[in-house]
Amino acid sequence: MYRLLACIALILATVTAMDRVLASALGDLLLRSSDRFMAIYRPSEPEAAPAGKPGTRPDAKPPATPEGQPSPLLVKAALTTEPRPAKPAAVASAGTAANAPARGPADVLVLGNSRADNHFPVSALQDMTCGRALNLGMGGAPTVLSALLWEDYIERHGAPRLLVLEPTGVVDNPHDLADLPLLAHYSPRIDAFVRQENKELWMANHAFNLMTFNNNQTMRLVAGLLKPAADRTLVGAIPQPMKKQLAAAPEEMMTADNANWQALDHIITSAQSHGTRVAVVITPYFPTYAGKLKNFDAFFAELKGRLPAGVTVIDARRAVDKDELFMDALHINEDGVRAMFAALEPDLRPLGSCPVDALASLSATPGNSTH
Fold it and tell me: Which residues does the annotated region (Disordered) include (predicted)?
């Protein structure tokens, strides 16, 4: 009997050890993925200083006109740009030289649910703001999850210059974990939240660490190892049967849980305390669906009323209204994204970080002037 028990104990110890080793190796491998969420948990990389200017950061160059000069809109945006707050020394990578500060993954950060994920391609956002962008929108994620991602990001990389927040995650179930459980492998904060919300899942993942990777997000991370992750705009138009279904649907009310309201307030207050500009951008709804929401305008009036002073609110709910620009009731397609960005430009572009050296370049051209 003792020998049998000893054999069982040895087998369990071997399986447990293999589980820990393989899970650790897989976690390290996936950390190299181009998937946007891994950018939070990779260490910041030292940035190269411009020649002759040790310790300074090279700013992104704005798109130029066909004549090679920065556009007047970008120059106007540069006039309103404030310097970025200094990054706390605690977020610098160990061993980084004094003249090569740690470089976080983004100047512009996007948070929200799938409407943030699919409506803010980083390529378009970088062109409009003249800064590196990172989209942390997560499908089905309530605002409480966005708050966890925000805290993890600033803890590791410091605050970005600009936070673009799509706020409609406040209507999502605050107990829904979405794709968060895999990130618990990298984040004690998220691990604690998973334990709070689903103790059975947490216990299974800790008993067998490989269970943490038993989900669809792991496949996306693997895909990100093989090729660079692309923008996540949607392709296609809302089908006719869905339009008829929406037209026949009953009216409903928009509601939000208090936990999501508190998380929204926490994100914004934290961002402002770090010197980050905050833009709350409400993206488009399919007009037929919006018409079924009895408190559509009242709900967003309440949302705006809850926001603290200093937040830029861009209400683009009706900025796109053609059926062919929508993928479904809540998401616009790639053509809709282009139309939305054209509508956002006057309000969003001035919040970016276009370099002020564009002024000198433009003013040096005969016949040009700024106002």
Answer: 44-71
Q: 239: which residues sit within 8 A by CB, 6+ positions away?
A: none
| The amino acid at 283 | T
pLDDT in tens, 72-82: 444 343 334 34
Where do the structural domains in the chain lie, given as residue ranges? 17-42+102-361
- What's the full length of the chain, in residues? 371
Predicted TM-score (pTM) of this structure: 0.81
Q: Which two tokens stand for residue 303?
A: 């949302």
Amino acid identity, residue 152? D
Distance in angstroms (rounded) separating the CA atoms of residues 320 and 326:
8
Contact 348, 73 (CB under 8 A): no
User: How big is the CA angle at 72 (ends 66 and 78), to the nearest 5 degrees?
Assistant: 120
Instruction: For residue 223, give both structure tokens.
Output: 């895909």
Q: How confident is the model at residue 351 (pLDDT cuts 50, 70, 90)?
A: very high
192-243 confidence digits (pLDDT tens): 999 999 999 999 999 999 999 999 899 999 999 999 888 899 999 999 999 9
Q: How far apart are CA 136 and CA 110, in angstroms?
A: 6
Phi, psi of 58 (to 5 degrees): -75, 120
Closest C-alpha among 165, 113, 119, 171 to residue 137: 113
CATH level 3 topology of 17-42+102-361:
Rossmann fold (3.40.50)
Q: Helix or strand or coil: residue 27? A: helix
